[in-house]
Design brief:
Layout lengths: L3 E12 L2 E4 L2 E6 L3 E7 L8 H17 L4 E3 L24 H13 L4 E10 L2 E10 L2 E7 L20 E3 L2 E5 L8 H9 L4 E6 L10 H26 L2 E6 L1 E5 L1 H4 L7 E5 L2 E4 L5 E4 L8 E8 H8 L22
Parallel strand pairs: 4-5, 5-6, 10-11, 11-12
Antiparallel strand pairs: 1-2, 1-3, 1-17, 4-17, 6-7, 7-8, 9-10, 12-15, 13-14, 15-16
Helix pairs in contact: 1-2, 3-4
Length: 328
């Protein structure tokens, strides 16, 4: 007997303390469903305690919407900061920031898990680490493996692509620049991933009072990442959920008008991409804001793509791929 389940999509936007809700729905046939959320919170560099309070606020709203898995942007705890001072904001994975969020989830009496970005201090090094945790503590972590030139010298690189079983879904993580490398998503696919979480922290300068610069900042981000992420989803039969912070933030040097301070502009883009490579839900094209969006995703969509006539796994001819692991 076939059973049908209703799929909902939700959207909350932060605007002077008010939240707007827009719901849509579609029907799909049976299969396990997971409600996944993404939050375009703009983390402030070197303000971990303030960022924790922001994470708590958005987490509570996600719990109210019955989200089961919530993604925050890259380095959402420490804030994105290319400065050697970041070492003093770094913490171990079992440090006070993760413990405080674990305790908060327990206080909310929820089994929802959240994925947050941590400047992880380990063995005298700092890793850009995304930690998945729930009320019982850390469930899974991923250290960013690829670095653009501007970030080299600040971070140590991860060297593994772990997956984690969450409910009936197998989950991986690819952070920002990692998504420029198709090998990352193929590895996750071969490890059986159904969903890859993709947190980001970059963007182009904009003036909030100038709609043209706002639209350009959003377009430039979407135009670039949409192709990477859609191709990754389609060629690997993956759900992809991605987000980047929304807003203009400054480190405390820039806020004080001091020389050498750094400003960061984040366009607030959120994508939900299905295993056939279609963007099924995304943030607006004309407004940058911190917002929460969510979508119910179905494992059936993964299975349908994998059972297709053209199979991107079994049809591979790996004997011809030796060049991939040779040095340039």
């Amino acid at each position: 007997m076939r059973r049908w389940k209703k799929i909902h999509h939700g959207h909350y936007k932060h605007s002077e303390g008010a939240f707007k809700s827009a719901l849509g729905e579609a029907w799909i046939m049976g299969g396990e469903i997971l409600r996944v959320g993404a939050c375009s919170m703009a983390a402030i560099p070197a303000c971990t305690e303030e960022n924790i309070e922001k994470i708590k606020g958005w987490t509570k709203k996600a719990v109210d919407e019955k989200v089961e898995l919530l993604l925050f942007p890259e380095l959402s705890l420490s804030g994105y900061w290319c400065s050697n001072e970041l070492y003093f904001e770094s913490q171990p994975r079992d440090g006070p920031a993760i413990k405080e969020l674990t305790s908060y989830l327990d206080k909310l009496d929820t089994d929802m898990a959240i994925s947050v970005g941590l400047a992880e201090r380990y063995g005298g090094c700092i890793y850009n680490t995304q930690v998945l945790l729930d009320r019982r503590g850390e469930r899974y972590s991923y250290r960013k493996t690829h670095w653009p030139h501007a970030e080299m010298g600040t971070w140590s690189c991860g060297d593994r692509y772990p997956v984690h079983r969450f409910q009936d879904f197998t989950i991986g993580t690819a952070t920002c620049y990692d998504n420029n490398f198709p090998e990352v998503h193929r590895i996750y696919a071969l490890e059986g991933a159904d969903l890859v979480l993709c947190p980001y922290a970059y963007g182009g300068r904009f003036d909030p009072a100038d709609p043209a610069t706002v639209k350009r900042s959003i377009f430039d981000w979407k135009d670039k990442e949409r192709y990477y992420l859609r191709a990754a989803a389609n060629s690997n039969y993956l759900w992809i959920v991605s987000c980047v912070g929304g807003g203009h933030v400054k480190d405390y040097h820039a806020a004080a008008g001091q020389k050498g301070g750094q400003d960061y502009y984040f366009p607030g883009v959120i994508f939900f991409i299905s295993p056939d490579g279609k963007v099924v839900k995304e943030s607006p094209d004309d407004e940058i804001a911190e917002r929460l969006m969510w979508s119910d995703i179905s494992m059936l969509a993964n299975y349908e793509q994998r059972r297709g006539q053209y199979n991107h796994f079994k049809d591979r001819r790996t004997i011809t791929y030796g060049r991939l692991v040779e040095l340039p």
